[in-house]
Amino acid sequence: MKIFFMWSTKKDYLFAPENMYLKNHLTFVNLEDFEQTSEGISRPGHFRGVATIVTKLFNIVQPTNAYFGQKDAAQCVLIRRIVQDLDMDLSIKIMDIWREADGLAMSSRNMYLTEKERNTASIIYQSLCAARKFHMDTITLARGELKLDARDIKEVVTNVLNREPMVTNVQYVSVDSKDTMKTLLEVGTDGAIISIACTIGRVRLIDNIVL
């Protein structure tokens, strides 16, 4: 059985409550570590809301499988942690990011980009691909015996982003653990998640890539 939110096109049932927070709601789910992630610092209180709503959803629906997109990397790690810590009997499936032909991650926010901004927005994915190539090339040459300084990876990303004047603000470029989203100082063969939040024009866009 498939239960989806309203943005899905294939569904057996639609879950669309009028209000997830009832009157006098007092209980929230809080994962303190996630407030200190790059996305958590940029959006204070965001992950408490995500954790609470998702926990309520799981309690109401009682699913056996739940699917989330990799585009919200920290959210995916957070939800897996909730399920593990609270002994929920379900499996979390993380799905690949859907991208446009030029690499831009699909998002409802893309519609707010002007035509000129949209034509340059692929620079975000290009910067991530440059970092992945830098990591792979360096690790291959060193035969897996070298760990890269995370600052060097970030520099590769920012150098690409800085080439595009329409990137008006880079909120963060973060190199984090795939399991905890905690900041890494070095990256070896175990890999990492490189995450970006930046503004093109007036539109805040996020993306990430898994090394």
Q: What letter string, H or E per element, gives the SSE order?
A: EEHHEHEHHEHEEEE
Gyration radius, rounded: 19 Å
Main CATH class of the largest domain: Alpha Beta
Q: Please state the second-level CATH architecture of the largest domain.
A: 2-Layer Sandwich
CATH topology-level fold name of the largest domain: Pantoate--beta-alanine Ligase, Chain: A,domain 2
Give the overall pLDDT as a whole number: 89
User: How many distinct beta strands?
Assistant: 9
Shape, principal axes of CA atoms:
globular
Coarse structural class:
alpha/beta
Helical region count?
6
Number of separate structural domains? 2
Q: What is the makeup of the main sheet?
A: 3 strands, antiparallel
How many angstroms separate the termini? 33 Å
How much of the sequence is in beta strands?
Answer: 15-25%
In the sheet with the most strands, the strands line up as 6-8-9
Can you tell me the CATH superfamily of the largest domain? Pantoate-beta-alanine ligase, C-terminal domain
Secondary structure: helix percent: 25-40%
pLDDT below 50 for ≥5 consecutive residues: which ranges? Answer: 1-7
